[in-house]
Amino acid sequence: MYTLGIDIGGTKIAGAVCDENDKVLSQWRVPTPTDPDEINDCILEIYNEALRLHSDIPTMGISAAGNVKADRRTMSFSANIAKWIDYPLADRIEELTDHKCKVVVENDANCAGWGEYILGAGRGSRNMVMLTVGTGLGGAIIINGELYRGSFGMAAELGHLPMVSDGDFCGCGLRGCAERYTSGNALEHFARSGIRRMPQKGKRLLELCGGDVNTLEGKMVSQAAQEGDELALYAFGKIGEWLGRTMAAIAAVIDPDLFVIGGGVVSVGDILLDPARYNYTRFLQAAAYREHAKILPATAGGDAGMIGAADLARREA
Amino acid sequence: MYTLGIDIGGTKIAGAVCDENDKVLSQWRVPTPTDPDEINDCILEIYNEALRLHSDIPTMGISAAGNVKADRRTMSFSANIAKWIDYPLADRIEELTDHKCKVVVENDANCAGWGEYILGAGRGSRNMVMLTVGTGLGGAIIINGELYRGSFGMAAELGHLPMVSDGDFCGCGLRGCAERYTSGNALEHFARSGIRRMPQKGKRLLELCGGDVNTLEGKMVSQAAQEGDELALYAFGKIGEWLGRTMAAIAAVIDPDLFVIGGGVVSVGDILLDPARYNYTRFLQAAAYREHAKILPATAGGDAGMIGAADLARREA
Amino acid sequence: MYTLGIDIGGTKIAGAVCDENDKVLSQWRVPTPTDPDEINDCILEIYNEALRLHSDIPTMGISAAGNVKADRRTMSFSANIAKWIDYPLADRIEELTDHKCKVVVENDANCAGWGEYILGAGRGSRNMVMLTVGTGLGGAIIINGELYRGSFGMAAELGHLPMVSDGDFCGCGLRGCAERYTSGNALEHFARSGIRRMPQKGKRLLELCGGDVNTLEGKMVSQAAQEGDELALYAFGKIGEWLGRTMAAIAAVIDPDLFVIGGGVVSVGDILLDPARYNYTRFLQAAAYREHAKILPATAGGDAGMIGAADLARREA
Amino acid sequence: MYTLGIDIGGTKIAGAVCDENDKVLSQWRVPTPTDPDEINDCILEIYNEALRLHSDIPTMGISAAGNVKADRRTMSFSANIAKWIDYPLADRIEELTDHKCKVVVENDANCAGWGEYILGAGRGSRNMVMLTVGTGLGGAIIINGELYRGSFGMAAELGHLPMVSDGDFCGCGLRGCAERYTSGNALEHFARSGIRRMPQKGKRLLELCGGDVNTLEGKMVSQAAQEGDELALYAFGKIGEWLGRTMAAIAAVIDPDLFVIGGGVVSVGDILLDPARYNYTRFLQAAAYREHAKILPATAGGDAGMIGAADLARREA
């Protein structure tokens, strides 16, 4: 039995037909439109092409950025797509397929975490936490070998763990959320702060952003850090510190055996993970009297979310 | 089959023989000695008396304050009993019973949480969090109807969730832990702060503590709050606020359907729970776009921990 | 003897000839160019017109946004005008006047504070602090009846008083500065946060900003607050709270007898000042055992800075 | 003309007769009683002995821990001596001397700061801040060569500058005051925290305090730090960090040219001052675009407060 996995990203919609061993048989990729109806049309198109190749696709898993209700069919809210407020995404797609395909919707960080658990660095773990350090900070929790969604589908909103009382204003309307201090956005913030305070050390970064600190992007900081630039390493040291502190907070609740760190920002490897590991130990409760979770980079690659979505949908069906 | 539940508290050791329906058949209570060996002797004595009455006690569950290893037999650390560092408590007691009784050790907050789940306010919940507001702040997590211990036995250390960066010094060696802001200790702190800053409003509390603010105890603040004293209500408002904030942080990880609030401090009821509920909503991520967990006071009574320990041990056996 | 006061604002350059009693005799206003040379030309033009009317202008006081060196002649840094790094502004203008006019440069918040001290709410005070709540938060300190500049011209940078450890990222490169929590920018932040968290209460504000929360401006929040809108009042309550906390911090250093609050945001009057006064008392050290400073709105009007600059220059000369 | 300087310390009352060049001519020292009347008797006794030797003592300056009213005669509050609430100390002593001696009362940190200014590291400074790192954190401010007391006698309460929102509970009833993070008390806190979290590194400190971390005293941490002990150096690093941060906050208000660091804790010298200097630069607003104040240890010795009190009284008279 084949399953279609769909990943609705900020810039592209990707789709893949997977077999029961999570092997990808065929794959598609189209730009993401902004209107929900057009998004649905894109998904239908991929579904139809998949049908043509594989004749029967009884199940579809969709990975979407935003809050998914516990029914795993409805988007309650999305920061990216304004009209996804209480939006019955699974209903719409099932209608478009004439109810020939059962649809399961899952939060994108959950899909990435599950993909990593079944295919990547998470294999063999029992209780695992995945943190996806992208523009923001996504989270997924595996408990006793199963994706944990919480009672209302809102578990693992780890980017919004409150880390600083009266801290940085977050787009969610709260202050001091973890993702304000450890994310691609935070990396840019720390780098800009550094340039403003230590202009003599900011030369390489200013060069990379053409002299205007406001146009500085995370990938420039990554490049400079890999070249050994001191200020870029400082910025990674700071988001690494807060990544460690955030993991220590999570451990006080979940006590996992493994943290997997994914997302674009982790491409620098130990430049991020070393300060994260150091500060995890520094801020972990009773650190001297307990076993410590492993902290590993993600290994399942960019398709993990799409494959994870397909796998989760097949298990559900 | 009967099980002996033992609760090693700061001032008393309590024991109860329970049947398979968690009904208490007989009960004992002795003062807690300070030396581990004497504690073991007390437990043996209760065991022997239990044997005399019920002839066969194949299983014993022990509730103990401190960190219990994942083997559920060893105390790795206890703030109360200095010699419980890597202490094989289950081994010791099993030896004393000539290996006729299998012993399971569990953290006291976990036992109280489990007792509440099977007998009290937690019945019917799927994912529940219990917070025990005593001298400190204890936590227990039930996931999918089972006590969740984490990979190394250290889950639900919710009193040490970091709430304030560079916050109040905690006895654990970290700063800003939740229990510094919501606990009996915190209640005394806030009340003392209030008296120092608003001496004209502190009259009733000063009366209750004989004029010396350093001797003020939590139960005096409870009494004054129940009389309607403004300053005492302020102090409860503050620990209630932080209880709400702590629950909101936990919800970002666990998304439970229920919080049960136990411990001596909750005896004032809505004086504590109203500000907790208000601030839970105020600090909950995406509060306007999600379902909210219930927040209820514990109802299973002071023996819940002892019975919970017995029940957990029987299930383990 | 007449003195020319110049106020280089973000949008306009204003000039006024004042007599020795700070009476304005004539006045000019032109748009602010972006280039330093063009700014200098504008100032020269105003100076020449002033000369034509009043024949002798031996002294000029310039109010400028940015850091002025202790020599009161050089701009060391300005957030608005990029080329003002170690820029000898007084030298340049004196050259343009053929050294017929002595120029004194002063920070704009200092000029506004001094204007308020000699003409407005500050009259009769001995030790006064002025806080200008505009886009950011400016400060001025009067000690023993004289403007206090500090040893290096950097006193009264009150908008950058650190209020929150690891707090909101500030444009200055630090975190948690007072102006991140009490300023026009902060007002917008708190209003946006409120709309995101309490969408049902955000209707009026969303109406005023045409539905896009990112285009919300401070003056819309002021308008809604004056209409009694709950969410707008909440936002003013928050910046008022932090204004009070900031004043309490300043009082721990300076212990003034008066705070004067100016800037565009204070146009709402007690909507801002009531929560500021309440929280000043709440956070003031030893509040119950001391006299308290008065907290008054500014009264000297929009020309106070320009007149203050002229007055300071005349005293200096 | 001779002046008597009196320093009422926590454990001893010291007195000295000084000439007009602040030279000490004779000196006394007695244990501090707890009752205000007995304190007064001790002072009278010293005064009488001073009279016997020097025949005429028209002026007395008293250095006292606590808040002194702007009249410089009345104690409004003292953390040490409970009955000093609105206590007319100068009146009492003048009565006891049959009004033959005029008494001026001054806060002890102010006296120490003034002593340092006239005799020690502060000579030649124009705007100086002294921080006395003892059990708590005292402050004194010199502006334009004069001791600055503020409008109500409450200036320079620098130990209560708010550094952390919702921070450590302070004895003053507020939270997050500077002295909770940089003082002898804070040194003990950080050392104890370190021992709890890194027991393997705590050996030397545990040895010094006889194995009970609760009996650890600041002077033990100083000794261990001077021996090179890693954990003790960590604790000094932390209070040094916060000393630097506190000075940076003060600089945003006062912009002094000099900070003088006194008190028992500074006896370790650069072990404290190096991290203080480093973090002062790290947290100073616009650090790259301004001149920086010097940071020096106090040099005037333990009698500076007593001599400072005498000098201030003579100037007043």
UniProtKB/TrEMBL annotation, chains A, B, C, D:
Pfam families: ROK (PF00480)
Organism listed in the record: Bifidobacterium saimiriisciurei
Protein name: Glucokinase
InterPro entries hit by this protein: ATPase_NBD (IPR043129), ROK (IPR000600), ROK_cs (IPR049874), ROK_glcA (IPR004654)
EC category: transferase
GO molecular function, one term: glucokinase activity
Keywords: ATP-binding, Kinase, Nucleotide-binding, Transferase
Family per record: Belongs to the ROK (NagC/XylR) family.
Its EC number(s): 2.7.1.2
